[in-house]
Amino acid sequence: MTTTALVYLLVRRFGEIHAPSLDWRSVAWVTALWFGLHPVHTEAITYVSGRATSLMTMGYLGALYAYTRGWRWCALCGFVAAVLVKESAMLLPSTLLLWEGLAGSSLRTIVRRQWPWWLLAVLAVLALLAHPAYRSLIGNSWRLHDSLAAGCTQLLAATYLIGQLLWPAALNIDPDLPVITDLAAVWPQWLGLALLVWLAWRWRRERPWVSFGVAWAILHLLLFNALLPRTDIANERLLYWGDWALIFAIVTELRLRLPRRWFNAVAIALAVAMTLTTSARNRIYQSEIALWQDTAAKSPHKARVLNNLGYAYAEAGRRAEAERAYREALRWQPDYLKASNNLRRLQAGHAPPETN
Q1: What is the pTM of this model?
Q2: What domains lie within the chain, and their CATH numbers?
């Protein structure tokens, strides 16, 4: 609820700065409503492992809002809190730069206002690099893919995630996306990205909400993950901090193009649809077996998914089904140690299984 309220406040604040004559109250309400009800956010809210993202996003957006109001110490505290929850919050200074850039602030003004956040970000990076575990994690991340493969793969992932935002008909907690090493394999996505960047630049004065939404999505769903490639190519929880500005841009355009009566009808209809879909999605999250059965149906060739399904079966005492799931995982990835160890333990009848 707090993050949803922050989305409302940020939309109102953006409107006050860029186009105070527009109907920002209704835009803010609908943006916050859709953000709060969207089924793609189920993982970030309902699943325990996704809650770090939702907690970080609360501090992140809180810091951004405090910055826009001139509450420096509140913004700095929010930034520190967000980074302590999840290190990806170090992206906040780039977000502040985007906000000031669209507002037309001079470079001198930006430096004067933002130097504490950039200093904190540098100190946070140095602290991470000084920690052996984080240093090893970052090194492994860079060794995972070369820069071209990372860029192409994350472009595919960002496209997939935005597709889930726009049409959440096949939500999947662990999608089976390939690593892309050939630029030509994702040429439509590169073309679409170039078009979006061109539109964002062209409309930066006329329609700054479009520029803001596109730039926010590129920063949070593409650039950050391309610089630090993830083992998980895409997770729906990433949209929790990466999609609100896109929703804001879409809602604003609808408000400008539709009569109020039609805008209200569309807002209510989609809110009802989202509520029903989110309710159905949450029912799947009620048990580990239901969740991983659903995921295995959508990612049937992914060994980790099958191993986790086997783990869920084993925890429930369904040994035969657990064994089948582990064997299926090993069929798709014969060198998968966790599935191999779990199968051996299951057959020996002792020791708990391992999951990811």
Answers
A1: 0.92
A2: 2-284 (no CATH), 288-348 (1.25.40.10)
